[in-house]
Amino acid sequence: MSKRNIDAVVFDLDGVITDTAHYHFLAWRQLAEELGIVIDEVFNEKLKGVSRMDSLELILQEGNQQHNFSLAQKEEMAAKKNLHYCEFLKELTPDDVLPGILNLIADIKSEGISIGLASVSKNANTVLEALELQKVFDFCADAAKISKSKPDPEIFLTACNGLGALPQRSIGIEDAAAGIEAIKASEMFAVGVGSSLHKADYQVENTDQLCWDKIKEAHKNWISI
Q1: pLDDT per position as a tens digit, 9-46
Q2: Percent of the chain beyond pLDDT 70?
Q3: C-beta of residue 141 within 8 angstroms of C-beta of residue 118
Q4: 133 vs 50: CA distance, rounded Å
Q5: Over 90: is that where the pLDDT of 162 sits?
Q6: Among 40, 124, 146, 160, which residue's beta carbon has the most beta carbons within 10 A?
Q7: Crossing angle between the packed helical segments 52-62 and 21-34, to the nearest 10 degrees
Q8: Active site (annotated) includes residue 12
Q9: How far is CA 80 from the centre of its chain?
Q10: Of 14, 138, 175, 201, which residue is the catalytic one?
Q11: What would the pLDDT profile of 104-136 be if each residue is shown by its tens digit?
């Protein structure tokens, strides 16, 4: 498939490029424990692809404490969680890039197709630097300037705009249901990594199954429908 059929490929970060979801869980659990709220890794699935403040709201709702704090207090708690998370990020190295991702990126770029990042994480640049991938992406949407969390399409539309790409001619890769919904809402072709992502246009279980030729074939079939 030639470049004229695909303008860009936009990646999520956590769970697609690398897996810092466990670090997020540890940081949120630490904060939740301080509030007397118990969360587990099953609950943590609800937080994937969700912004920091929205994640905090979900945790507070879990403990029926959503009305106990002012906005300023909530912002302080979210900042405290981020400090915990950044401590865990110090353990991240280039070896933590998920299997198959470097080959996939190389295959995409070999065809002259732009790649972007659509992560709601405000620590995305820190993560990319730790992985030594900061120069790989042509455009990274700034999470600090995104007003609406996934499943709203804002971040994917922002990434496409930054890449000069039409969403209808672009591909998004996500590991969370909210992310897949955001991709579909932006009218992009949705690639899902993981189970239970039934709204994805193309789905694999793990990143090492992401094959550019197979994605292109699936995309070709999608645009011909």
Answers
A1: 999 999 999 988 788 899 999 999 999 999 998 999 88
A2: 98
A3: yes
A4: 23
A5: yes
A6: 160
A7: 50
A8: yes
A9: 21
A10: 14
A11: 999 999 999 999 999 988 889 999 999 999 999
Q: Which member of 7, 12, 138, 175 is catalytic?
A: 12
Element (H, E) at 139: strand 139-140
CA distances from 31 to 59, 76, 85, 107 (A): 10, 11, 10, 41
Q: How many CB atoms lie within 10 A of CB 133?
A: 19
Q: What share of the chain is helix, strand, coil (3-state, %, to 5)?
A: 50, 10, 35
Q: What is the pTM of this model?
A: 0.83
Percent of the chain past pLDDT 90, that is, above it, reads: 79
- 7 belongs to the catalytic site: no
How many other CB atoms sit within 10 Å of the CB of residue 33?
11
Backbone angles phi, psi at 57, to 5 degrees: -60, -40
The two three-digit tokens of residue 146, written as one number: 């995104």
C-alpha–C-alpha distance, residues 102 and 46, integer Å: 28
Strand 139-140 to 114-117 pairing: parallel
Please name the residue that has the structure tokens 């470097």.
Answer: 102
Pairwise CA distance, residues 223 & 139, whole Å? 25
Residues with Cβ within 8 Å of residue 98, at least 6 apart in sequence: 16, 17, 18, 19, 207, 208
Find the farthest-apart pair of alpha carbons in the chain and give their distance in angstroms, rounded. Answer: 55
